[in-house]
C-alpha cells in the first residue's frame, strides 16, 4: 500500500488488535487484545483503557505497542503499526472518549454508551502512540491476477 492508502485504511473505523510485551511472571509473550482506537492520517494512534488494567500497566512498562487492523473481506488487507507511547492522558479527556464512542457506534448508541459508562471518565486513561514502523498488505492485485488466470484457464477449456 502507498502511504496515503495505508493511512486512509488505518483511519477507517475498524477494531484493532493491540499487542504489548508481557513480561509478568517470566511469560515473555505479547498480550494481544481487541481495541477501539482513534487515528487521523499523519497523526497518532489513541487507545483508551482502565488506569489499573493489566493493559495499562504493560503499556506503561513497555513504553510502546503494536496495533494491527484488517479487512476480513476479500481481497484481504491489513495494516500493522508499531511505535512508542508518546503521551498518557490521565485522566482521559472526555472529548477523546466521546470521539472513540462516536467512531464505532451510531450517534444515539454512542450517547447511551457514554451515559451508561460515565464513571469510566474517573478511571480511564488514553495512550497515544506515534507510528514508527508500518507493515501492510493489500491482496487486491494478487486476487485480480488469480481471477485473470482463472478466466484464461476457463477460456482454454472451452476452446480446446
From TrEMBL:
It holds the Pfam family Pyridox_ox_2. InterPro entries: F420H2_bilvrd_red/Heme_oxyg, Pyridox_Oxase-rel, Split_barrel_FMN-bd. The keyword Oxidoreductase applies. Keywords: Oxidoreductase. The keyword rRNA processing does not apply. This is Pyridoxamine 5'-phosphate oxidase family protein. The lineage of its organism: Bacteria, Bacillati, Actinomycetota, Actinomycetes, Mycobacteriales.
Amino acid at each position: 500500500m502507498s502511504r496515503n492508502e495505508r493511512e486512509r485504511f488505518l483511519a477507517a473505523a475498524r477494531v484493532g488488535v493491540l499487542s504489548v510485551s508481557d513480561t509478568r511472571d517470566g511469560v515473555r509473550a505479547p498480550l494481544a487484545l481487541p481495541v477501539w482506537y482513534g487515528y487521523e492520517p499523519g497523526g497518532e494512534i489513541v487507545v483508551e483503557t482502565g488506569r489499573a488494567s493489566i493493559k495499562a500497566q504493560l503499556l506503561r512498562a513497555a513504553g510502546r505497542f503494536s496495533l494491527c487492523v484488517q479487512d476480513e473481506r476479500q481481497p484481504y488487507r491489513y495494516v500493522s503499526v508499531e511505535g512508542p507511547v508518546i503521551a498518557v492522558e490521565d485522566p482521559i479527556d472526555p472529548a477523546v472518549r466521546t470521539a472513540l464512542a462516536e467512531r464505532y457506534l451510531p450517534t444515539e448508541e454512542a450517547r447511551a454508551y457514554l451515559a451508561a459508562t460515565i464513571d469510566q471518565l474517573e478511571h480511564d486513561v488514553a495512550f497515544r502512540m506515534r507510528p514508527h514502523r508500518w507493515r501492510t498488505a493489500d491482496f487486491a492485485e494478487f486476487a485480480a491476477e488469480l481471477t485473470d488466470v482463472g478466466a484464461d484457464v476457463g477460456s482454454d477449456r472451452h476452446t480446446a
